From TrEMBL:
Pfam families: Ferritin (PF00210). It comes from the Bacteria. Residues 19-156 form the Ferritin/DPS domain. PANTHER family: GENERAL STRESS PROTEIN 20U. It comes from Zobellia amurskyensis. Signal peptide: none annotated. This is DNA starvation/stationary phase protection protein. One of its GO terms (molecular function) is ferric iron binding. Belongs to the Dps family.
Length: 159
């Protein structure tokens, strides 16, 4: 087995960077959705939700950068065109959403898709001994599970 400069299998690193690129595409769509609902939210909960959506898109933007840098660390090239994001993303598209419950449901649905991908990457990075990717996925999962719980509580729904 040939190892790269950070001591990981080149084959595993290539596979993980491809998985991370899938996550990157989905995070970019999630980020755009958050920007859209931040800009377009209306109604009596505007003052509550507008800053919350900004908090979420700021965090998503940081995660996008972290994912892209991890792809580079593993020797890959991060996706960086909308064409690539459209082709690879599974996160639902939120267009012209201005109502609070619809916005919150979009966030929950988007995070569900991200969590599925992240858990798959977590398992693969664990198998390959890639602690850097594994730690990043673990941190993402922990934060997103909490966000899902809070959003479901806001909706007065069970997890």
């Amino acid at each position: 087995m040939k190892l790269n400069s950070i001591g990981l299998s080149e084959k595993d690193s290539k596979s993980l960077s491809e998985d991370l690129n899938e996550l990157l595409a989905n995070f970019q769509r999630y980020y755009q959705n958050l920007r859209g609902i931040h800009w377009n939210i209306k109604g009596k909960r505007f003052f509550e939700l507008h800053p919350k959506f900004e908090e979420l898109y700021t965090e998503a933007n940081l995660n996008v950068d972290e994912i892209a840098e991890r792809v580079l660390t593993l020797g890959g090239v991060p996706l960086h065109t909308f064409e690539d994001y459209i082709e690879k993303a599974k996160v639902p598209v939120g267009k012209n959403i201005s109502q609070d419950e619809e916005a919150i449901r979009l966030i929950v649905d988007s995070l569900k898709e991200l969590l599925i991908i992240e858990r798959r990457i977590l398992d693969a990075s664990d198998e390959s001994g890639d602690e850097g990717t594994n730690s990043m996925m673990s941190d993402f999962i922990t934060g997103q599970e909490k966000t899902v719980w809070m959003m479901k509580a806001w909706l007065a729904e069970e997890i």
